[in-house]
Amino acid sequence: MKYDINKHQLGKLVGTITGKYQTFAPQEIGGKVVLAEVKTLSNLRLFSRPTVLPFKKILFPDRVEFGKADGTKSIALVGLHVCDVHALHIFLRQFVDSKLVLRRDNILIVASECEPDINCFCEVFGANRLDGFDIYLQKEEGDKYSAYTNSQTGEDILDEIDIISAEEQSNPRPIKHDDDDFEYSLEDTISRRADFEDFWQRIANNCFGCGACTAVCPLCFCFRQEYKNNIDGSSKICLKWDSCFAKGFSEIQNRNDLRPENVDRIYNWYHHKFVRGKRELGRFLCVGCGRCIVACPANLNIKNILSALDEKIERRINGGNKNS
Amino acid sequence: MKPYPKKTLGIYSLTCCEGCQFEILKDYDDFSQLLKYYDVRNFRLGQEENLPGPFDVSLVEGTPESKEEYTLLREIRKTSAIVIVIGSCAHLGGIQSERNSLPKKMTLAKDVVSIPEVINTDFIVPGCPISHKELFAFLMDIYWNKVPTLHDLAVCFECRQNENQCLLKEGKPCLGPITRGGCDSICVNGGEACYGCRGATDQADFAKMKEILKPIISDEDSTNMMTIYGDYECEWKRRTDEGK
Ligand code: SF4
Ligand code: SF4
Ligand code: SF4
Ligand code: SF4
Ligand code: SF4
């Protein structure tokens, strides 16, 4: 369903959601736009640039105490971009058998239209497809907005707002160009490391191994257990965000490091995202959000790296779809 | 629950500003908690009566300058089961090691050396100054006979977690990519660059760092930046060569 609403009704919509759920949305706080719990509507930045950290900081906060996560509460994630909605579903699939992360049923997903920027490439992996949300918000001329619903939960919420008009058959504006042909050679190319050793070495030489990319990626979810002995004599176990670039990540007994060189580590990053992830979850662990490009202090660019590995991706990124 | 007796502790200061010792006393509640697990036998700044070793654990800040300090340092090593160097001076040479780059005729003193260049040490608690929380966490691990560990990712990881605007991306210098995190990127959170007070990560790439800084500051400035807290490239070479 499509609902036409104005600015006032948009505020009411978010207000209604905030009344029902613990709600998180991009907000301007201390000069930065970050995803945070909504306390007042005045800081909201629903149609913002991507936040540095994605939803994982809400669903799986750093250093959460083991066993203390509340798996039963319901939350709303408002203002997710479409790529992040795709990432969210993959993320939830990864944790589905654990009690560490909330389930889909406990999350209201309210997506909002993005402005594609120079770093993002969601269309390459089909993560621009408008799908997987309960409500989708689109900005129109002036103070007007459209809200599209994709589930009963979404419709029930819109029923509580007085809307201007509603339409049965109407689809949101597409984001970037849609194309279903995702037959890439990526998985095969990346799995054959020996054939591309020089290539990986060159990338490793340009990478600090700092892990910034893994911190910001919505589909990097590694964590380690941190045993903390507190000064009051108590101790606790925290789940701390980890990264495959950390020494402690690949080091086992007797200081044996399974991935001692940076080339082993950055290769592993790509191998997990584009080979193992695909085999385990059926999707690449990348939705093309571009966060790792913005974050990399060495200016490494995953778009260029993937383009170099697969001609079809190259064409898609650089030539739209006109050549394929 | 206290299945173990208190461990004995000596806290020593060589030449430096003594900021790390003050940090130990910064939160008196935490310090008095520590006293339940450690018997502080020697701490000139904190108490009147100071006893000689042997101790289970000794903390040393500063760099050795005088002959007496060299003797004391070797004595500490001999009489302590575990020696922990605390702070950038002890760990890297500290601000005073700027002296090493002056023309020799301008200074009569010998080069400043960091503590690991003089004696074998067991652990480092880095930072200028240290954080008492990190130090006390180390001491609690040691109390329970657990090997303490330092953060093993660069400052950038925490800086991204804090969602700061990246300084390098804005064309400003920053040493976060090669510096050991664990400080919660406190300097960048406050709008300052990371000057590397915690020393280098194991995988630090100094050549790469200089290359990235080239369009931003002069080579001289980037060398200065990388030696403010002591020559951490030297320290890194020593440490990683030993590891191999
Ligand atoms: S952010 Fe860049 S430099 Fe740091 S580990 Fe990732 S690719 Fe390497
Ligand atoms: S790998 Fe980079 S572009 Fe892909 S999802 Fe992660 S942060 Fe986004
Ligand atoms: S790429 Fe690395 S940090 Fe990210 S999920 Fe895979 S192994 Fe973990
Ligand atoms: S500001 Fe400095 S520490 Fe932060 S991400 Fe950029 S280079 Fe790293
Ligand atoms: S940000 Fe850098 S200079 Fe500042 S405390 Fe951390 S390591 Fe030291």
Automatic annotation (TrEMBL), chain A:
What Pfam families does this protein map onto?
Answer: Fer4_22
Q: Which InterPro entries match?
A: 4Fe4S_Fe-S-bd (IPR017896), 4Fe4S_Fe_S_CS (IPR017900)
Keyword Iron-sulfur belongs to the record? yes
Q: Which SUPFAM superfamilies match?
A: alpha-helical ferredoxin
A GO molecular function term, named singly, is: iron-sulfur cluster binding
Task: Alphabetically list the UniProt keywords.
Answer: Iron, Iron-sulfur, Metal-binding
Look up keyword Iron and say if it applies. yes
* Domain 4Fe-4S ferredoxin-type per the UniProt entry, residue ranges: 198-228, 277-305
User: What protein name applies here?
Assistant: 4Fe-4S ferredoxin-type domain-containing protein
**Species this protein is from:** Candidatus Berkelbacteria bacterium RIFOXYA2_FULL_43_10
TrEMBL record, chain B:
User: Which source organism does the UniProt entry give?
Assistant: Candidatus Berkelbacteria bacterium RIFOXYA2_FULL_43_10
Q: Which residues form the signal peptide?
A: none
Keyword Oxidoreductase among UniProt keywords: yes
Pfam families (UniProt xref): Oxidored_q6 (PF01058)
Under the heading InterPro entries, the entry gives: Hydrogenase_assoc-protein (IPR051349), NADH_UbQ_OxRdtase-like_20kDa (IPR006137), NiFe_Hase_small_N_sf (IPR037024)
Task: Please state what the protein is called.
Answer: NADH:ubiquinone oxidoreductase-like 20kDa subunit domain-containing protein
In the record, what terms sit under GO molecular function? iron-sulfur cluster binding; oxidoreductase activity
Q: Which segments constitute the NADH:ubiquinone oxidoreductase-like 20kDa subunit domain?
A: 17-141
Assigned keywords, A-Z: Oxidoreductase
